[in-house]
């Protein structure tokens, strides 16, 4: 019952001020789709009418090919993908720490309910991340209906042409994209939870900067241990030779979140809260 009360308060108070972030998510999602569809004329062989809802999700999370060093060429992370991921993470950044330094600290000291407080914040962070993903899904669904496309989870290799002008041959012409979309949710929720623990133990600004650096590193190099790779359609091993395995990505991110969760809960129960100062 105490957990439900704490979660109810978090949902009521913690979502204040999140509307601009959700609006930003929708705008960036639409921008990613517009940029992708402007490549239709350049590619020439893609029938837009054959694309699906899952293809539009994939185009929003297109990402970029791994950076290949060439003299005089500077690495630039994919703007739309980076901003989209940052906004999802930013949505749940400040409230837990702000509550810990304010009213939440008084409740913790008075009722000695640290486990309940932190568990409530973990659930709130996950739900906030899911809310951000829902906004992206709604944008993709509306775009799909406007384009007269199918609301299915089938992914087509043709979408890779629009995602990054990536030419074949590909491993398949079409695949079920449910696993790819599930992986996006799992990775973003895991990164949001990791950010939660880092923000409590360090600072929100440090934790957010760490997430940004992790995303940029993922955009730079394709490797199994950088989680941002699993958020990129153009690096999915289902279509691309040498791509990353989404199921490995989900297990990796869930494992990291679990380890940080266990260690974080143990450390939080012993942490001195009274002498901590409110700072971003």
TrEMBL record:
Keyword Transmembrane recorded: yes
Transmembrane intervals: 15-36, 79-97, 118-146, 178-201, 208-226, 246-268
Identification of the protein by name: Uncharacterized protein
The keyword Membrane is annotated on this UniProt entry: yes
UniProt keyword annotations, A-Z: Membrane, Transmembrane, Transmembrane helix
Organism: Collinsella stercoris DSM 13279
